[in-house]
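Researcher: Next entry in the queue.
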Amino acid sequence: MSAPVPKDFDAENADNLEDVRLSFLPFLLALLRVWLVLPSVSTNEQQIEKQFAVKAVRHLETYWAILEKVKGSSLRLTKMDDDIYEHLRAEFPDFDPAATINEDEMKSKVGKERWRKFMMAYDKKVDDYNFGTMLRTSPKVEYGQDTTIFVPRMQFYAIEIARNKAGLNDWIYEKAHGANKS
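Model: Structure for this entry, 182 residues:
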């Protein structure tokens, strides 16, 4: 992620994101099993799943912590944010970043095809473009068991870039800093 470090950012006293909220892991592991259609797995595979889940949870916690420190509207997630945003608008002209994501529609046969085509454009351009990542279904809510879905990283980038450009994540910063927008 590339954004200027806020003037008041204190690295010495910043939250330690090494401590992953383990309460999210059972939910994520169950989600992974359904998404990957995994039968019962060996101990070694369980360890790999857990490492994968921990990485996904760390990503969501890191992103949330950044949104608490920097307004989303001033944040750049990649060096290609503008290109990704324009590509999203071209491929998904009806996409509304303020709307709640319909997971069934997104993961339908047609939805998967459209998103796969979109994501493949970033195969050699964006690191971990297809790595599993957690995404809030709505920009109006925090991450939670009923408000979070599992998507490839490129979908996360495209949707969150659109939300940030529209200022839809700024409330997170304002809430963290005690500002009320109403």
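Model: The chain has seven helices and two strands.
Researcher: Noted, moving on.
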